[in-house]
């Protein structure tokens, strides 16, 4: 139940982020809808396909489909109001990756996979919808370098498996891991922290 | 039988469209073959993988493989004659998306999925081979905005499920849905109709 | 056993090639790790997903994960020494595609697929990790045209199935096929051989 609610919240957040990028690319309504779909379910689809959960989640649960269509219609209708929320795109995105990281880890645990694989699945669920959105919109997928992004997901995932030694309740673990993802990303952007790039000088 | 024939016709149409794009990118013969393959089976592969039909269709049916190799050899040998067919690239593409939309819907119905998911599968089958072709050829995947494209597939799919209330015979339904896709796309290009973009003015 | 060792060697070669590209793109450490992963397991993941081997190989065998993490840490720590190996990027890549071609063919054979499909799986395993790396790093996926690349894999695969008529021992077949891939690629680059492009003159 708790698991399903956060899944839906993440879906809304990502769908709206997809709508905003697609509208800025001057797409037509159906193009916007497809980008909203890809952004919202892309990461989870990749995850499901790689562990063999098929048909993939969103095909077996019409809730996701209605939520994405609803979010898209909402975002399109109130697009001029959303402009005041321009900076909120960042916040939506941040909540989305936190929620999806947790969903990805949970899916990995259910499939009985190794903690490292679960963290990889969480990161994949969180980040690859946005990567696919950027590739389809012909944007550079900045995710891997411009900001702390995947790093926040990986740290959230590590937190989950470290705290699991001390905490019993999965729901608490998920909430804490999600908050770590949000916190890491917000702090990183607020204080312009980023990991040093590993660029090799070509002396 | 009918189902298989339209699948093969769509495969030929898409393979040739892939050959034409790849040759314009000055690829070598094997590069051209790979792009022909990706264009022809990319959308269907994505569909099969997402609903769990594995090994994917083209691996279990050598007909597709021979048809793609044959179409590629044909298109390469007669490439100078094909130049007179330059505008035919558009027609091939249009027939291809109509046929693939129908195949995608059928696959979704066989898997017992919801009508909305079936329409999504039809659109995916029709459009994502071309999207993958464009990404691999480093072209901007124009599909989502330049012309009515995905929109035609979605309208064809909707027609299918609306008419299903009144018509029994699946073959008729498929033919009508396919013709709707072709008609919508031809009319849209002929009369330069496109859906309004949802670009937000940044006043 | 033999099969597993070459799989691991290919993984190391590709992971390091991914690290080098990602570092040149000034990615942060986790970005570099993700690109190393995608490069190393991308082609095999695509192969596994398309034939229905799920969860995909690297999720069921932590060896791959540790090998990739280890190779990444090694390549990052010794990045200044690796600069002297700059031309080795090419060699790593060549060994990698030879090994992966063989692994892909073997996987297809185990799944009981047609020789042509096995060759396609070998080529896919070898080439698509690099294609995904290039797409994620916003590089043009040069693979299909700049150099003999996929062509070497296809020729190696053809050699395997032709020699199979005369040789019993699979290990010998794999070694010979792999050497053909390496030889074709090295000779092509050494003597600047490339297949003629099929560009159509637009007289």
Automatic annotation (TrEMBL), chains A, B, C:
Membrane spanning residue stretches: 6-23, 30-46, 58-78, 90-110, 116-136, 148-166, 172-191
Domain Glycine transporter intervals: 5-79, 91-164
Keyword annotations of the record: Cell membrane, Membrane, Transmembrane, Transmembrane helix
Pfam families given in the database record: Gly_transporter
Primary localisation category: membrane
Membrane topology: Multi-pass membrane protein
Coiled coil: none
Localization, UniProt: Cell membrane
InterPro entries assigned: Gly_transporter
Entry keyword annotation includes Lyase: no
Keyword field contains Mitochondrion: no
Similarity comment: family membership: Belongs to the UPF0126 family.
Protein's recorded name: Trimeric intracellular cation channel family protein
Organism: Winogradskyella echinorum
């Amino acid at each position: 139940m708790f698991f399903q609610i956060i899944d839906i919240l993440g879906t809304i957040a990502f769908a709206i982020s997809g709508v905003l990028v697609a509208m800025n690319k001057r797409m037509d309504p159906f193009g916007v809808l497809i980008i909203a779909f890809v952004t919202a379910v892309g990461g989870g689809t990749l995850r499901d396909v790689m562990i063999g959960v098929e048909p993939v989640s969103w095909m077996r649960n019409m809730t996701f489909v209605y939520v994405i269509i609803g979010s898209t219609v909402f975002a399109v209708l109130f697009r001029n109001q959303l402009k005041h929320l321009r900076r909120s795109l960042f916040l939506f995105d941040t909540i989305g990756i936190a929620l999806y990281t947790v969903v990805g880890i949970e899916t990995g645990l259910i499939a009985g996979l190794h903690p490292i694989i679960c963290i990889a699945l969480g990161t994949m669920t969180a980040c690859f919808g946005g990567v696919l959105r950027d590739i389809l919109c012909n944007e550079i997928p900045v995710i891997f370098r411009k900001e702390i992004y995947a790093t926040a997901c990986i740290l959230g995932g590590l937190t989950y498996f470290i705290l699991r030694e001390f905490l019993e309740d999965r729901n608490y673990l998920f909430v804490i891991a999600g908050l770590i993802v949000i916190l890491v990303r917000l702090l990183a952007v607020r204080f312009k922290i980023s990991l040093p790039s590993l660029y090799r000088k070509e002396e």
